[in-house]
Amino acid sequence: MKKPKPRPGIMDIELYIGGKSTVEGMPNILKLSSNENPSGPPLAAKQALISAGLSLHRYPPSDHLDLRSAIAKIHGLDVSKIICGCGSDELISLLCRAYAGPGVEVIHTSHGFLMYRICAMAAGATVVSVLEKDRHVDVDAILNAINSNTGVIFIANPGNPTGTKILDVEIERLIKGTPKDVLVVLDGAYADYVNGWDGGAKFVESQANVVMLRTMSKMYGLGGLRVGWGYAPQHIIDVLDRVRAPFNLSVPALLAGEAAVKDKEFVNAHRKQNNAARTWLAAELLKIGVQSDPSEANFILARFSDQAQAEACDDYLQSIGVLVRRVGSYGLPNALRITVPDMAGCERVIAGVKSFFGGNSYEL
Ligand SMILES: *Cc1c(COP(=O)(O)O)cnc(C)c1O
After folding, report:
1. Which of 10, 98, 176, 335 is packed most tightly, with the most Cβ within 10 A?
2. CATH architecture of 43-263
């Protein structure tokens, strides 16, 4: 029978599957599978959300000016170079739609965020996966992969699911070696966890082909609301504004996002809390024999001796209500990505991993 057919390549896209959040019949779940802030968003964001509920009959503004102005002020950026998206996922998609397509190569790294690949394929582009070096972005390997068909390069810094970060001098080397007509996208989804770092904004200021992406889904605890933003040269903003839907952010998302971004104290407190808990968690895992690279984000990539052991540990943790993330689809089958919880949660993870290795049963 005849039926409508999608464009070639669409059905080759592997479905993105979000982190597990429930186990049937299991109360008291500790969800550490999606890098969410364990404390949720700032109180001011929740209050803004409630007041937004009173004006749902009104269309949101299409220029996102209040949210963009708040972002510009807090981060010391130029408001005209900021664009907001329905999560930064949407901006990844818009960049691919506008700057990639059939015949254009999109470079991502072997353990890079899956959405780069998905959005590039959805745009009909050719995906080029470049090897990382010991789970770190390898600038030389990326530069070697560039050719006359290259259109876009995506790197996450810090990376997900690796948690590793490359230095600004390395980013500088990447930008210097990249032709000026190739877009370099610096995804700073976890930049908020790196104290005193701008996420790469300064490179946007000085280059015509660099874009920085940020999200409010991780540090700001607003994953459920979908707020992301990008910082890009004016000519790129002019392009993206033409392909995005005018009302891509809802009124609640705009108001809660604005309230959250203004709460500097929240960010400072949670960075401190996360980074201390992360250090403790990594050290305790190491004592049990589970290694990880120094992470700069709100998760740890725990490495096991092989895939079977990683999966058995995941199964065991799940049986005691601790949900972490398998990362085989990121080329890391012998690892598990564990979001850093609060200290009580960290202790629960360690007790769980200990009893997995020691065979002692764990009391919920
Ligand atoms: C979570 C994440 C994003 C996207 O987050 P949104 O919820 O779409 O804003 C983008 N990049 C990386 C590397 C991420 O981990």
Report:
1. 335
2. 3-Layer(aba) Sandwich (3.40)
